[in-house]
Amino acid sequence: MKHSVKKKEWFWAYVFITPMVLGTLIFGIFPIIYSFKISLTKWDGIGESVYVGVQNFVNLLSNEKFKFEVKNTFVYTIFYVPVSLVLSVIVAELLNQKIRGKEVFRVIYFLPNIVMPAAAAMIWRFMLNSKYGIINIVLDFFHLPTPSWVADPKFIMAAVILVSVWSAIGYNAIILLAGLQGISRDIYEAAKIDGSGAFSTFIKITVPLVSPTLFFLLTMGVMNGLKAFDIIFMFVQNNAAGPLQDATRTMVYGIYESAFRYMRMGDASAEAIVLFVVIILVTAVQFKLQDKWVHYE
Amino acid sequence: MAGEKLCGSVDSTEFSKYYINTILVTLVTVTFMMFFGSLSAYAFARMEFPFKKVIFAVLMTVFMVPAQLVMIPKYLIISKLGWVDTILGIAVPNIFSVYTMFLLKQFFSGLPKELEDAGRIDGCSYFRLYWNIAVPLCKSGMVAMTVLNVLWAWNDLLWPLIATSTDKLRVLSVAMATLQGQHGTDYPVLMAASVLAVIPMVIMYIAGQRYFIEGIAFTGVKG
């Protein structure tokens, strides 16, 4: 009796997980293996594929576009992640104070995260327009320099990072706020009695106590930075090949362009694998370093 | 006013088609995401079966692989199946969300053990235990995950861009990109289109912000 009940439970459990397991096999595991195979071929996705060994990887090294893509991917991540994290910590800390209308601020800060990135990029491009964009009108009013953000190769990446940061702060802040609310008030009371100032309390108590949350946001942020697409695509797609395009093309854009504009599946898959390895390595390094600053209770 | 501007320069029937397409794609994708995600989450959280840990670990490992690595083979699969420019091509590769499964498993694991015992005495089938007992009890988790998935499906650009080649099933995010290409500096049109694309999510957010905030905070705590 007991045995048949158990068997019945097994049977239904397997029925329940079958769609997920099959779907993951077809659209997850098989594509991973297939990617490696394609990366060793020259193939337009339709005709015959030709085995070329590691030639696609070798070609990447001498490809000028690829060099820009690697550089831009790292520049983007190195600025986007810390800037959005620092600003999110500040916003979360402010939202954690006893202020009136806190709920309203919370709604407003999170709003950018709701906005479709493709639409956000378009609205920001307008605001950053050198002639009639609101940003430069304000900068001009204060007699500050007014660069042509979206038309100057020196500034366009800054514009992309600005939009990405704007879009990410709300999400990070909500998660951090949940972490901050988990800290007992008694600890702050004790720090106050010991005569600790607001800033040193923040650095010595708040930051270590939310460090697991910060670590989560850092690793996720770096991953998202390395594989960012939507906002970058909206900034890069209109620009003809040249310095402006080279200043914003990232690895994911490069993969997209090789595969779906030029139908070079082999080159694109090789670049995808390089990106994958980069993400694994960078994430592994972060996990290695976490002992140095992350405090788990 | 925004509507007039849009009608003036872009065919408004075209734009309403993109709207309907986006609603359709979001609806189909999220419905199946939630069903398959919660069903498997329930099995992993509340049932015992051989190789449970191994299967779960394999699924989680696949989840760690960035979508950008697999987008080329995924495209080749849907093109082999003749699914390019169809709802199947846009939705099916995205409906098996290990992420949804993982987070819902955390919700289901939090339910007391006695629940199923009571249900089992009444002779409930496993599917009814899941559907009539566990899902209603995890309503807030289900709603939070639904809302997050709707937001993701509505806003996603990369996959619909790859999976469609004509404007038959063009969604709003892809329309943004193509509009920008065609009307590069016609800002009134571009702004009107962006506002229209964003409004449904803003309304959903304001109406259900508790679920948004809960869901987001939860992904941070358990993720």
Report on this model:
The complex is a heterodimer of chains A (297) and B (223). In chain A, 75% of the residues lie in helices and 1% in strands. With 297 residues, chain A is mostly helical. Chain A folds into 2 domains: 2-39; 61-293, MetI-like (MetI-like fold). A two-stranded antiparallel sheet of chain A has the order 1-2. In chain A, a hairpin with a 7-residue loop joins β1 (41-42) and β2 (50-51). In chain A, α1 (2-39) crosses α14, α3 runs parallel beside α7 and α10 (211-226) runs antiparallel to α14 (265-293). Chain B has a single domain (2-222), classed as MetI-like (MetI-like fold, Orthogonal Bundle). Helix content of chain B is 79%, strand content 0%. Chain B is mainly α and 223 residues long. In chain B, α1 (2-9) crosses α12 (187-207). Chain B contains 13 helices and no strands. The mean pLDDT of chain B is 88. Chains A and B meet through α1, α4, α5, α7 and α10 of A and α2, α3, α4, α8 and α9 of B.
Give the secondary structure arrangement, pairings included:
The complex is a heterodimer of chains A (297) and B (223).
Chain A: H1 2-39, E1 41-42, E2 50-51, H2 55-61, H3 64-95, H4 102-114, H5 117-127, H6 134-141, H7 156-181, H8 185-193, H9 198-209, H10 211-226, H11 230-236, H12 243-246, H13 251-260, H14 265-293
Antiparallel strand pairs in A: 1-2
Chain B: H1 2-9, H2 12-46, H3 52-64, H4 67-80, H5 87-91, H6 98-109, H7 114-121, H8 126-137, H9 139-155, H10 158-163, H11 172-182, H12 187-207, H13 209-222
